[in-house]
Amino acid sequence: METITVSKQDTGTNPETWVDAYGDYLYRFAIARVGDAHTAADIVQETFLAALKARKNFSGRSSEKTWIIAILKHKIIDHYRKKSRSQPVENMDNFTEALDAQFDDKNQWKIKPGGWDSNPLKVYEQKEFIDTLYKCLADLPERLARVFIMREIEGLSTEDICKAMKITATNVWVMLHRARSGLRRCLESNWLDDTSPEG
Amino acid sequence: MDRKLPWWQRLPLTVHLMMCTYCARFKRQLQIIRRASQTDAEGLENESTSVQMPDDVRRKIKKSLQDHLS
Prior knowledge:
Chain A contains eight helices and no strands.
């Protein structure tokens, strides 16, 4: 969205053609994430309107389709965030304490990561895994989620994130580490209870 | 994952990851999360490619875009 800034080599197509060009694809993606057609349609509409507002910022670093999908992913996470019954962990201190609790006083693993990375299936292509990832993203403290989305979904560099968030590079790296650790922990407890061979 | 470390930082990290099973596992899991974040609908299993946006939704969104363009 406004954080997606790019070069000038490709200014994209006419917004009037977007719906025919990307509508089905976005609708399919949204319906797979949110489950109901009505909500999916609303989210796709919001996505196109957000893209319209932000189109001056589209620079062509990624394809137009990739750019619009990144906006759609934002909107889906916003939807989960609004819908989430559990309050997002806005208190960063509590969140950090919970992450630190994975290690003991000697910095040894106290809560060891489960063995789901050795799953022979490509977990990152499984619908349930990605659904859980989106829900976990919605439950992250908002600033951490924003930094993660900019880096991993929009593909921005550290430098671009520093400018957008007005923070230092070290801050970006710390926040990315916390976001990733938090997501990993959330995925493990919400998705993987019965898939980890080693617990 | 976000920058290339200088060799004097990379080397001890690599050695540590070789010795620490759980740290290596942690790293692989973060890479899986990265892949999942970047996955688009085309890469997903179990998602029907036959689903299309209904015509009334298409018309509504087009009208809404036109209203905002004018």
